[in-house]
Write a structure and sequence with these properties.
Layout: E1 2-7, E2 12-18, E3 25-29, E4 50-54, H1 71-84, E5 90-95, H2 97-108, E6 113-119, H3 127-143, H4 146-156, H5 159-164, H6 167-177, H7 181-192, E7 207-211, H8 220-229, E8 234-237, H9 245-248, H10 250-264
Parallel strand pairs: 3-4, 3-5, 5-6, 6-7, 7-8
Antiparallel strand pairs: 1-2, 2-4
Length: 265
């Protein structure tokens, strides 16, 4: 197991690499406001693989230079990380923001991607969504993360998960409170630049889309469109859940990931 900071050419990036050294690598990208520990709840899905987790620019223990950021910039960070660790290709799994980055990687750096798992993510932000996220970023800058904490926790989890205080809920509640308001705004600008719709058919690696019917961040029709646009992509549903469905149903997601990787890995 190796863990620590590595220079990607642009930032110092925190990573955690574990598993058999000669096994295929699965690279895991957390959601907005989280860090590499998001995947603590899912490591059982990747037994037998070498697993690379990291903190995205602006998150966790990685650098948070002044923004705004772009998805291409963040994707380049990951390529720099792979180069620094001498990893040529990875099976890439991204949740929400991580799925946006995954699409960008597969489109802009296709030779680095062996397969994709796109989880509770979208391929396009509408003008209304951009306005809403920028308003939230302004609130975070003015009033701190606590000013947006409750509304985003409600967006990410069902009331049942909140009432039961499931482990994933507790993790996000604690981790998001440590997210820097300036990073909130910088990363939001990257997400607001998302539009991969026309380029999705160019993704030629095996792909699994995991979605939730009651996801406020990735509407059902968008999830179906993504799966239909990527050649051969499979679509699976996790419910009942909101936006961070894997943290409400870790075992069900883990089973889906294991089955997918058994076919493509």
């Amino acid at each position: 197991m190796a863990t620590g900071q590595v220079n990607t050419g642009a930032i110092e990036m925190f990573y955690d690499l574990s598993g058999p050294e000669d096994a295929p690598v699965v690279c895991l990208n957390h959601c907005f406001g989280a860090d590499h520990r998001y995947w603590d709840h899912h490591m059982g899905a990747f037994e037998g693989f070498r697993v690379l987790r990291y903190d995205t620019r602006g998150h966790g223990l990685s650098d948070a230079p002044p923004g705004p950021y772009t998805l291409s910039m963040i994707a380049a960070d990951i390529v720099g990380l792979l180069d620094a660790l001498a990893i040529e290709r990875v099976h890439f799994c991204g949740v929400s923001m991580g799925g946006m980055i995954a699409q960008t990687l597969a489109i802009e750096h296709p030779r680095r991607i062996a397969s994709l798992m796109l989880v509770n993510t979208t391929c396009l932000y509408t003008d209304a969504q951009r306005v809403l996220w920028r308003e939230r970023a302004d609130k975070a800058l003015d009033g701190g993360i606590e000013a947006v904490h409750a509304v985003l926790m409600d967006r990410w989890f069902t009331q049942d998960a909140a009432d039961r205080q499931v482990p994933g809920y507790r993790y996000m509640a604690e981790t998001f409170r440590r997210f820097k308001p300036a990073s909130f705004g910088s990363v939001i600008e990257a997400m607001c630049g998302l539009d991969t719709v026309a380029r999705l058919p160019g993704i030629k690696v095996p792909t699994m889309v995991v979605a939730t019917p009651d996801d406020p961040g990735a509407p059902t029709e968008i999830s179906k469109k993504m799966a239909a646009s990527i050649p051969g992509a499979a679509l699976h549903w996790l419910e009942p859940a909101r936006h961070l469905a894997t943290l409400e149903h870790p075992e069900r997601f883990n089973a889906l990931a294991r089955e997918f990787l058994a076919r493509v890995g």
